[in-house]
Amino acid sequence: MVDSNAITLQLKDIRKAYNIGLPAETEILHGIDLIIKRGEFVALIGPSGSGKSTLLNLIGLLDKPTSGELFITGQATTQLQDRELTMLRAKSIGFVFQFHNLLPEFTALENVMLPMLAARGRPDEAIGVRAAELIEQVGLTSVGKHMSNNLSGGQQQRVAIARALVMQPALVLADEPTGNLDTQSADTIFDLLRRVNQTSNTSFIIVTHDPRLAKRCDRIIELVDGRIDSDKPNVAES
Amino acid sequence: MNSIMPFEWILATRFMREARMQTLLIMSGVALGVSVIVFISALIGGLQTNLFRRTLDFQAQIVILPPKEVSRSLRQAGNGKLATLVQPRAQRIQSVDQWQKIMKRVEKMKSVEVVSPVVSGSGFIVRGEANKAISLTGIEPDTYLQLIALRNSIIAGTPNISSTDILVGSDLAKDLGVWTGDKLNLQTASGGTATLIIRGIFDFGNSGANSRSVFIALRTAQSLLNLSGGVTSVQLNLDAPFTAETVAQSIQAQTGLEVESWIAANAQFFSALEAQSMSNNVIRFFVGLTAALGIASVLVVSVVQKSKAIGILRATGTSRRQILRLFLLQGALTGLMGSLLGAGAGWLFLTVWRNVAINDDGTQLFPITFDPMLFVYAAVGATLVGILAALFPALQAARLDPAVAIRG
């Protein structure tokens, strides 16, 4: 038995189908069982079409499973309404996407503030302080006041990571965070994620195609055709 | 972002500021619509006020007349069949019964401003070989001049007449080749005749009135029309002209006399004004609709353009309600800002119009009413239109599936 306090995420027989009831009905995920413990740094790999993104959307509460149970820090989520899902998502989950992570209308610093702003309703001092802190942590203090679309791809991803962390989530979901970066920037981003993971005890799930990066995670889960094909600790790293 | 604006306001204003061209175009559209509404409303309002004023300048608001003389049909008792057919009676000149009493009674009514007795009839003016049919009005200048804007129409002499004086219209004076101080001979069908001195010449801006109407003293008219001590009507004005019909009806109920208000007398004029007001409303409605469609279409496009941003916002803790409010707010702000711009532009048009549309003598072609409340109404109305227009796009944005929006 695992200590329930130490469990960040638990999936019980999660299934997801599209076009339900139509001739074109297709099940993407065929019963996923998964437990992610606090502070784990997990790589999610698998070929295109294996259901990685679908799984990530379900975990991120952006989508609802057709059946099964999903717990975030012990809380059941499948019965929740949009309002409660939004609150839980804001509080517990940080996102880093591959593309179009930031709102171009805002500066880097403002992008980091947005999740806190949405939660609190209006700006206050604490939001600014927290955002500045995180921008410093990702090493972008000098460009914090630049409009986000004037930043390089690597810088944008670092801002996205700062934003993902602003609410001190239990879990960060990163969908190919280094997918469109050169090797050097990719390493910087990865190192940053790793460092945050070690200092904050936040769990990470990182979807990646890059075997080099996957090998630097604690645990590698491989998804094939909507099933977990393999799930093993990364011996080399741990 | 160190403002005190709520989250949705910050987003809405930033989105609008960054989409400069779209914002500018749609706001100009709304502004144009609002300025048209402001301009047309002021113009029509001014026109109507002016028409009312002109009508009321030359006409008492309420006229009390003797009841019409009617021949009674003889009926056989019992079955109600007509025993004889009787011709309708020709109406002779007749005095208002007990008119002094009625005047006193009417004067005491709260809303009544001024009451004046009038004797009117027809006659001829004879001068040398010339002979003109006229309609004569016997007045008491003290009260009658308050009733009707005769004083302002005097182009020569004075309207204050005594029993040997007469006021004639400018056309009549020209036809007869007379001017103030000249004498005229006035005759009536009942055989009355008087020689009167022209005390004043008026111009009502209407050649019919200018060539036919003459004003003489009440007593002179009474004797000329063989109506000693009587008057053919009692005329009055109220402090609120638009209550004339109800007041007229209550006087009629109290006295049993024939009472006519200017509203009933000008029924056709009123229906024309109503049609004008209605066409004004139709214009407003369609301009509003056009503005609404413009705002809606800009926002629909904006929702599509911003779908990724909406997805990211939703993923990072922005609720559906907040997204809904974000887009409703953009609609409201577009409406409000557009209407303020438009009200300003409308005001500018009006000012220019005031200086351009003037008569040769420097007076305005017709004065424009300039109701500041119109601007308030325009702002509130346009804001509401903006919110309504934003409703569909905002719902669309709120319903956006974040997973799809981010991926797409």
UniProtKB/TrEMBL annotation, chain B:
GO BP, one annotated term: lipoprotein localization to outer membrane
Keyword terms of this UniProt record: Cell membrane, Membrane, Transmembrane, Transmembrane helix
Primary localization: membrane
Superkingdom, taxonomy of origin: Bacteria
Location(s) in or outside the cell: Cell membrane
Gene Ontology CC, one term: plasma membrane protein complex
Domain MacB-like periplasmic core: start-end pairs: 23-253
Transmembrane regions listed in the UniProt entry: 24-47, 285-305, 326-353, 373-392
InterPro entries named in the record: ABC3_permease_C (IPR003838), Lipoprotein-release_system (IPR051447), MacB_PCD (IPR025857)
Membrane topology: Multi-pass membrane protein
Span of domain ABC3 transporter permease C-terminal: 282-402
Family: Belongs to the ABC-4 integral membrane protein family. LolC/E subfamily.
Name of the protein: ABC transporter permease
